[in-house]
Amino acid sequence: MISRKSSSAFGSRTGRVLISAVALAACGAFGFSGVAAASASTTMTDPHVAGGPWLDGDDISNLPTAFTGNGTSSLLLLVSANNGVPFVRDPRTGWANLRNVANSAGGYVQNITVGQLTTGATGPQIARITARTAGGIFKTDCTIDAVPIPTSGPILGCSPWAPLPVMG
Fold first, then answer.
1. Could you give the angle at the alpha carbon of 143 between the alpha carbons of 75 and 77, nearest 5°?
2. Positive/negative CA dihedral, 7, 52, 45, 60
3. Parallel/antiparallel/unpaired status of strands 125-133 and 48-49
4. Cβ atoms 123, 64 nearer than 8 A
5. Per residue in 15-36, pLDDT tens?
6. For the chain, which residues make up each domain, given as ranges?
7. Closest Cα to residue 131, out of 94, 101, 92?
8. Which stretches in the chain have pLDDT values below 70?
9. Is the pTM above the cut of 0.85?
10. 104: closest CA among 138, 127, 80?
11. Which of 31, 40, 114, 161 is the most interior residue, by most CB within 10 Å?
């Protein structure tokens, strides 16, 4: 079973939310067949459903309010795999294509998640974005600081995409 800590889709941290149904459905663990399998692979092509993100988001906390521009110490980062293309949304700039991160192989992204790696002292924080493709599971770590994630051109604040090490 795959689960992870996540914030609600509306930006308030409400505790632990399991996204195992989304992750397992993307992995095929439910064994859909026929019409259900066909619609499962084709219906989620827009990063928004009923005004909100359809895949994942996380509040990146412990940021100086000067970084956020919203008077709080956190930013809600959203990720989506729209038609297999990975996107991240920095609320300060908008949606950015993660194929602009170094080492992107351009594979069709089947599932994508985001989570905060650092939660220490106030300052720049690290958000880990993990994407599943037919070629494996890959990660990039993005520094969330005073410089927003750009919506075009190279995304230099993120580490190059790399295979996620398999544990245990």
1. 30
2. negative
3. unpaired
4. yes
5. 333 333 333 333 333 233 333 3
6. 45-163
7. 101
8. 1-54, 119, 168
9. no
10. 138
11. 114
